[in-house]
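queue> pop job 88
queue> type: inverse folding (structure -> sequence)
queue> payload:
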């Protein structure tokens, strides 16, 4: 259902894999069209990865985005593959996708994020 992933331009609210969320996209209206399109394509690629089930230990992005505690979360773009920044209740961090590309989160490129145990999937880092 990657095609059912989009941003409602009226309120900047994210719909992910056909599910409406309470997550907003930071500065969506200030981004240029090319940046907006790349961001939505990044989200759709995340949906394809979830559907393929090509991760095992981390959370899936759907769980993070649809959680009841995240109302008002603001999602932003991140430099790491399939990863995003977030802000919620004054706490900022990243929703980082880990896997073979970053050795499960060993602190190296391309995510530069560290996990205590190797992970494949999305984890929230603050």
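queue> result:
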């Amino acid at each position: 259902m990657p095609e059912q992933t989009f941003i409602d331009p009226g309120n900047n609210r994210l719909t992910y894999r056909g599910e409406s969320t309470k997550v907003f996209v930071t500065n969506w209206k200030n981004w240029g069209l090319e940046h907006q399109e790349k961001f939505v394509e990044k989200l759709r690629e995340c949906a394809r990865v979830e559907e393929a089930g090509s991760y095992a230990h981390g959370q899936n992005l759907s769980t993070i985005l649809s959680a009841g505690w995240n109302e008002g979360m603001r999602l932003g773009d991140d430099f790491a593959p399939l990863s995003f920044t977030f802000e919620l209740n004054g706490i900022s961090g990243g929703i980082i996708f880990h896997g073979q590309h970053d050795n499960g989160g060993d602190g190296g490129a391309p995510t530069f994020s560290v996990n205590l145990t190797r992970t494949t999937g999305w984890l929230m880092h603050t």
